[in-house]
Amino acid sequence: xxxxxxxxxxxxxxxxxxxxxxxxxxxxxxxxxxxxxxxxxxxxxxxxxxxxxxxxxxxxxxxxxxxxxxxxxxxxxxxxxxxxxxxxxxxxxxxxxxxxxxxxxxxxxxxxxxxxxxxxxxxxxxxxxxxxxxxxxxxxxxxxxxxxxxxxxxxxxxxxxxxxxxxxxxxxxxxxxxxxxxxxxxxxxxxxxxxxxxxxxxxxxxxxxxxxxxxxxxxxxxxxxxxxxxxxxxxxxxxxxxxxxxxxxxxxxxxxxx
Amino acid sequence: xxxxxxxxxxxxxxxxxxxxxxxxxxxxxxxxxxxxxxxxxxxxxxxxxxxxxxxxxxxxxxxxxxxxxxxxxxxxxxxxxxxxxxxxxxxxxxxxxxxxxxxxxxxxxxxxxxxxxxxxxxxxxxxxxxxxxxxxxxxxxxxxxxxxxxxxxxxxxxxxxxxxxxxxxxxxxxxxxxxxxxxxxxxxxxxxxxxxxxxxxxxxxxxxxxxxxxxxxxxxxxxxxxxxxxxxxxxxxxxxxxxxxxxxxxxxxxxxxxxxxxxxxxxxxxxxxxxxxxxxxxxxxxxxxxxxxxxxxxxxxxxxxxxxxxxxxxxxxxxxxxxxxxxxxxxx
Lengths: 258, 332
Hints:
The complex is a heterodimer.
Chain A: E1 2-8, E2 20-24, E3 29-33, H1 40-47, E4 55-60, E5 63-64, H2 70-74, E6 77-80, H3 92-97, H4 112-124, H5 140-153, E7 158-162, H6 170-185, E8 189-193, H7 197-203, E9 206-210, E10 216-220, H8 221-224, H9 227-234, E11 238-243, E12 246-251, H10 254-257
Helix pairs in contact in A: 4-5
Chain B: H1 10-34, H2 42-49, H3 55-89, H4 102-115, H5 120-143, H6 150-174, H7 180-188, H8 198-211, H9 215-221, H10 225-230, H11 235-257, H12 263-275, H13 279-303, H14 312-331
Helix pairs in contact in B: 1-3, 1-13, 3-8, 3-11, 3-12, 3-13, 4-5, 4-6, 4-11, 5-6, 5-11, 8-11, 9-13, 12-13, 12-14, 13-14
């Protein structure tokens, strides 16, 4: 559905690194892992066609995404950004409604159906009773859920989410990951930039490791989530434990492991 | 906040506020036409408008008061719409049409022609050229070598504006004293120089029509450049359109009425506090409310201390500042 073809993302003052070639197929959930500054967000934006690659291409259903009209892209692909604070005052419902924008012609106004889709998305993210609140009055976690509700009302086939669990309490983290898994079951392709290795281990089928020098490797989650590789990635000692067949990673500190 | 009404669907939510503003517009126009050194009663106005009435009244209405009132309406509407557009472009609810230095450029143009003793038409023409030079300079410089962000555009505009400010001070300092009052009135914004209302009204109408189908894209852009691009908006093209439209609107307003302050800042902001942030409603509402405010301000300007006249810009500031502060205080 979405494919990287010899893709090299454009990060200033960095050598090219590994050209990325992979395809995100319907139903797959990809996790992008890497330390701060490795280029996870840049990769996500490049995959969304919001940034030009240094070389190579991103193809959406076989066409170079840079050649598609933004509106065509937006009808298939939703992006959840990391910072949702920017912008003008708006209410929660108005914000969820803009997810319908790619589907409404310039001369039309939102239909009752669009309103129903946006409302359902808000309900799903437990924001239904906040629909008239201004975004500026929301908590960080509520804003994050609103960003996901906006993407949900965009009814995308592809989700590109930058740390979707940011600011969320544990219950809502699980809820969001379940929602994304449900979308994957409904044949959506999903790409997540994640910091939480345990979320990656629990929810992702494929993992892409992105190193600060531009090197990268990707494969099935089972193969990729090996303690030595992750320790090298983050330059941080880790302990891996298995409980109920599920693997967990715990970062170790020299202060209390000694 | 009144924005809650969006939930009832867009159209019914638009009709009431726009009807009220349209009525307000007619009321201020009627007031502007009937008030003055010779007052005209509503009955007499009706006679004049239906083709009868006394010749003196006809001359007053059709040759003096109506053109001036329509000019005020046009200029006010242009400024308010330009302000509303700039606020979306810069994602800053406190941006105004002059923030990017357009009024400064226009003022330098206008004052130069006044210094050279050129005709009123030349003053208007050079004000327009000055405004456009400023708009292109700011846009070109802010565009620079790569991405332009609202912050960069804003900073460039502010610096260019203070540059124009220095040039204006210099020109005032070296001007012969008999020219100073005219120059100061122009700088404060004054409709005594307004010639024909039609350019302002036509530009206001045209740009409002062009902006009509872009309203929802503007709402999306108000959420940020990246978010807008991700939702299918061609951000670069839309930003260019807004910038050019706002610059033209401002340039025509300044040519019509000099640099009237506060209308472009306060009217869209007040409307947002009351009506919410849907640009499809805010833009036409700004055209009507801005027009009505300046018509009213100009009527007061020429009657308050008659036979002397005040610059309309003084009145817009006197009306606008306290109203704005009150609304801001009340809103949170």
